[in-house]
Amino acid sequence: MKAPADTEPKPGFAAWYLIAVLTLAYTASFIDRQVLNLLVGPLKAEFGLDDTKLSLLQGVAFTSAYILFSPLFGRLADTGSRRGILIFGIALWSIGTSLCGLSRTYWQLFMARFGVGGSEACLTPAAWSIIADSFPERMIPRAFSIFMMGPYLGGGLALIFGGLLLESAEHWDLSAVPLIGAMKPWQIVFLAAGLPGLLIVAMMFFVREPVRHASRIAEDKGQMAMADVWRVFVQHRGFYGNFYAGMSSLVVCLYAFPAWMPTVLIRRFDAAASTVGVQYGALVLVTGSLGVLTGPWLARMLEKRGRVESLMLLPFCAAVGLILISIALGFTTSYASALAVATAASFIYSMPQALASSALQLATPNRMRGIASAVYVFVVSVTGLGAAPTIVALLTDHVFGDEKRVGDSLSITCAAAALLSAFFLWRALRSYRLLLAHR
C-alpha cells in the first residue's frame, strides 16, 4: 500500500538535478522551435513566401514528424531506458536546429524542421514518465510546474536573444570566418539556437534512471501489452477522450499566441522586430513562468478546501478565461493594450499545464504512462503545433485578405479553441472525480 503523503520520503539531489536538466532541455527545445517565429520577415523575403507557406514551416514541417515519432518514443519510454532516449533525442534535435541555418532552399529548411520535430517527440513521454517516478505523489505537480517553465523560458529567450542576435548580426563583418562568413543573419540565429542542446546532452549522462512506481489512482498492471493499454483507454474513455480533446484545444492558444503575436505587433503597430522580441519575449518568460508555478499552489489551496479534483478544475477555469482574453485581443487599438492582452493570455494558458500533466500521470498505470503521454503529444501536435499557426494564416490570407488583420485572425482562432476546450474539460472533470472516488 502506498505511504500517506506526509510520510513519503523527500526527493534528494538526484531528483532535483533531473528536474534542472529536463527543464533546460525543454527550454532548449522551445528556443529551437520558437526562434522561427521572430524570423518571419527575413524568411519571407529570402524564399518569397506568403503567410500560409511560412506557417507550414511553423506547423506542418515540425508537427508531421512530431506526430509520426511520438508513438514510437512513447512505447520506448514504457519499455526501455528513458535516460537513453532523452540523450539521443536532445542531441539529434540540436543538430537539426543548426542545420536549419545551413539551408539554401525552402525545402531544405522544411526537411531540417522535420528532423527537429521528429527528435523532439522523445521529450514529453520520456520526461513525464521519469519525473513521475522520481518524486512522491504530493510533489509531482510542483516538479511538473518547474519542468513546464521550459516553454516560457525557451519562448521568451528565443524572442529576446533571437531579436538581439538578428539585429546585431546585420552589422557584423564575418567574411573572414570560414562557413559562417557567407551566412545571412537569420542563418546565424538558427546556428546559435542549436548549440546549447549539446551541453545539455553532456549533463544528461549524470542523470539516474529511477525505479518505476505505481500510481495511487490507477491500478499498477506491471508490464502491459498493447491490448492491455487499449483496454484501459476504452474502460476510462470518459476521462481520456475528453482530457485529450480539451487540452489539445487549449494548447491551440499556447501555440497560436507566440507564433503570431510578434507579427501582430510588428504589422499593426509598425514596431521593430528587435523591440517586439525583447519586450514580448521578456513578458512571455516572466508571466509564463509565473503562471506554471502558480498552478500547483492554487491546486493545493483548493485541495485544502475540499476540492480534490483541483488538478482538472483549474484547467477548465483557464479555458473559460481564455475565451474572454482572446475576444479582448480583437478590440485592442494600441501597441500597449495588445501587449497587455498577450501578457494576460501567457499567464492563463501556462497556469494549467503542469496540473493537467500531473493528472494524466496519476490517473494512468505506470507501464502505459509513456504511451498515454505520446497520445497527448499526438493530439496536441495536430491541433496546437500543426493546425493553430496555419488556421490563423488561412484566415488572414483567404478570409480577410489583409495581412494587417492577423490580430483578428488570432483572436477568432483562440476564442473558438478556448470555447471547445471549456466544453471538453468540463466533461473530463466529471470523469476525473469518478476516478478519484474509486481509487
Report on the architecture of this protein:
The chain is an all-alpha fold. It has one domain (11-209, 223-437): Growth Hormone, Chain: A. Helices cover 76% and strands 0% of the residues. Helix 5 (82-100) runs antiparallel to helix 7 (123-132). Residues 1-5 have low confidence and may be disordered. It is found in: Membrane. It is a multi-pass membrane protein. Residues 18-433 form the Major facilitator superfamily (MFS) profile domain. InterPro entries: MFS, MFS_dom, MFS_spinster-like, MFS_trans_sf. GO terms for molecular function: transmembrane transporter activity.
CATH fold-level topology: Growth Hormone, Chain: A
Structural class: mainly alpha
Outline the biggest β-sheet. none
Please state the average pLDDT score. Answer: 85
Low-confidence stretches: 1-5
* Molecular shape: globular
The number of distinct helices, counting runs of at least 4 residues, comes to 19
H/E topology pattern: HHHHHHHHHHHHHHHHHHH
The name of the CATH architecture is: Up-down Bundle
State the domain count: 1
- Assess the beta-strand content as a share of residues: under 5%
Under the CATH scheme, which class? Mainly Alpha
Helix content: over 70%
**Oligomeric state of the chains in view:** single chain
The strand count comes to 0
By CATH's scheme, which homologous superfamily applies? Answer: MFS general substrate transporter like domains
How much is the radius of gyration in Å?
A: 21 Å
N- to C-terminal separation? 12 Å
